[in-house]
């Protein structure tokens, strides 16, 4: 057991005499650790006796350092990979959300463009339809204006014409006229694609000297189809029409005039055509005025008005 006991001098000499070994694979340092000897026979603690145990430094132990380094590298690589995966997953999620938002924005833009395009097409259609409809309406209106109705006076006959003295409603004494007459005329619609609604002002027969109306008649409203005509007969009557001095030139015998009586027949025919519903409805006015001479010898005889009337 004494063989294992070494003094401080022996340890020192051993340390000095031990050649320094070059570290393997680099500058590896060797350290010696002195531990107290446990082989003392007397059990007394010896503070100066140590065992020398060579210990490699952490730098000098290539196996442990390389294993520690490789495990650390693997751990750090796994952590970095996990972090990268997390980042990638977050990035992928963000990219997916961005792609979804971008796709939704593109869809919204596309829908907005389509909506604007449809509105533009609709407005263009309305404008084109309005322009074409207006043009078509103007064409119809212009064509219908050239197809005016024609009024042709045929004849007039006097059934009764008498002059009598009397009193008006207020009791004033004056001469009074009673007459009945019948007038005939032809109304012709020259329109090729429209019918006509016809009305007229009252037909008046007046004394030419004083413009006093002696008889009047009316025409009922009627409809005349396209390219057609009809003959109208209108009765004009006047009963006890006071002259009030306007008929001083009228001479009579037994109530019958002894001289021809100048009379005037006048009225206006109003026509309206509905070419395109109520949108295109041209109007036509025809004023008729005829100069007639009542001959007491030709009562109840139809007198021609062919050359006696003017049309305006």
Task: Summarize the structure in words.
The protein is α+β, with helices and mostly antiparallel strands and 312 residues long. It has three domains: 1-8 and 28-60, no CATH class; 71-146; 149-311, Immunoglobulin-like (Sandwich), CATH 2.60.40. The protein is 30% helix and 38% strand. The chain is built from two helices and 15 strands. The strands form four sheets. Strands 5, 6, 7, 8, 12, 13 and 15 form a seven-stranded antiparallel sheet that branches. A four-stranded antiparallel sheet has the order 9-4-3-14, with no helix packed on it. A two-stranded antiparallel ribbon has the order 1-2. A hairpin with a 4-residue loop joins β6 and β7 (212-217). It is elongated. The model is unreliable at 1-28 and 37-72 (pLDDT under 50).
Key structural traits:
312 residues, alpha+beta, Immunoglobulin-like, 3 domains, 7-stranded antiparallel beta sheet, 4-stranded antiparallel beta sheet, 2 helices, elongated
